[in-house]
TrEMBL record:
<feature type="coiled-coil region">
    <location>
        <begin position="269"/>
        <end position="296"/>
    </location>
</feature>
<dbReference type="Pfam" id="PF03087">
    <property type="entry name" value="BPS1"/>
</dbReference>
<keyword id="KW-0175">Coiled coil</keyword>
<dbReference type="InterPro" id="IPR004320">
    <property type="entry name" value="BPS1_pln"/>
</dbReference>
<protein>
    <recommendedName>
        <fullName>DUF241 domain-containing protein</fullName>
    </recommendedName>
</protein>
<dbReference type="GO" id="GO:0048364">
    <property type="term" value="P:root development"/>
</dbReference>
<dbReference type="GO" id="GO:0048367">
    <property type="term" value="P:shoot system development"/>
</dbReference>
Length: 310
């Protein structure tokens, strides 16, 4: 028997990211099922690094796309379709469709929020290029717009995280199988495992995007004191302790530290621009991975609907 340890969704307050579950599969699996099992085993061994950076999130999204490509192949097999139709368990398929629809909704909303963030970053980059001295009056409105976009994204992320909390129990109690139903049992269990990993990896994405926002107050740039208090007003050599969003916050703080030299200001503007470009690239790559995952989820859902229509 082949054992697989699953990865459960984690919340900002949870410490280990995974709950351990044991799922058994037949020793002789169909190649498509075996391929999916192998990928799930690999992903279930991943740990969540601190800080959570874009590279980790991108890797998880890419792997999710591969998982749902395998699920699509599995659902298109005649033996899988026959097993699902033979038992005529509508709740099982309905649960699968509900889960896929929930993930599609989260992917779509997160992608839309990422587009707004990209636009805000571009506007801030443009304002910095136009500013000769980099004074706060010439760029403050654009910085405010940037933080406003962050705030909107955090609201959408909070809604999506709440939705994911209801998705980690998909398939629970949906099917009581006979011990002789080896194939269908394996199919259900591997799809349940894929659902748990989907919840966990989408949570990683959402938590990355909802990193605490260090916003300056309207009357004064208090961001500096906040960052100093939290120990994140870092020099270039300490940036490994920040993710891409926190790095931009720190750079914006450096930009408004009182100073008397224009060269220092120019250096700060360059630092902000560099980190904004890194963040822009990261969000664009996340957007692309979300597009790819969205397509795989659509294809898997269509495969399920085709089974129902038989």
């Amino acid at each position: 028997m082949l054992k697989i340890v699953s990865m459960a969704a984690f919340s900002p307050k949870s410490t280990p990211p995974y709950n351990v579950r044991s799922v058994s599969f037949p020793a002789r699996s169909h190649p498509s099922l075996a391929k999916l099992e192998e990928k799930l085993i690999k992903i279930s061994s991943w740990q969540v690094p601190t800080p959570l950076k874009a590279e980790t999130v991108l890797g998880r999204l890419s792997s999710l796309g591969e998982i749902y490509k395998c699920i699509e192949d599995l659902l298109n097999l005649p033996v899988t379709q026959q097993a699902l139709l033979q038992h005529q368990n509508e709740k099982l398929v309905d649960d699968m469709l509900d889960g896929l629809m929930r993930y599609l909704d989260i992917c779509g909303k997160t992608r839309d929020a990422a587009l707004l963030m990209k636009e805000s970053i571009r506007e801030l980059q443009s304002a910095l290029r136009r500013s000769k001295a980099g004074g706060e009056l010439s760029i403050q409105s654009n910085v405010n717009a940037y933080f406003s976009a962050r705030k909107k994204m955090k609201k959408e992320v909070a809604k999506s995280l709440a939705s994911l909390k209801h998705a980690d129990n998909i398939f629970e109690g949906s099917l009581l199988l006979s011990p002789s139903d080896h194939l269908l049992s394996a199919i259900v269990r591997v799809l349940r495992e894929a659902s748990l990993i989907t919840v966990s990896n989408l949570s990683s994405l959402l938590l990355f995007l909802s990193v605490p926002m260090l916003k300056p107050r309207r009357s004064k740039w208090y961001l500096v004191s906040k960052l100093v208090h939290k120990g994140v007003l870092a020099c270039e050599g300490q940036q490994e302790n920040l993710n891409e969003l926190e790095s931009v916050d720190a750079a914006l703080a450096d930009l408004v530290v009182p100073n008397s030299g224009k060269d220092f200001e120019a250096r700060d503007i360059h630092s902000v621009q560099k980190r904004l470009e890194t963040l822009h690239t990261s969000i664009e790559e996340i957007e692309n991975e979300l597009d790819s995952l969205f397509k795989h989820l659509i294809h898997a859902r269509v495969s399920l609907l085709n089974i129902l229509s038989q």
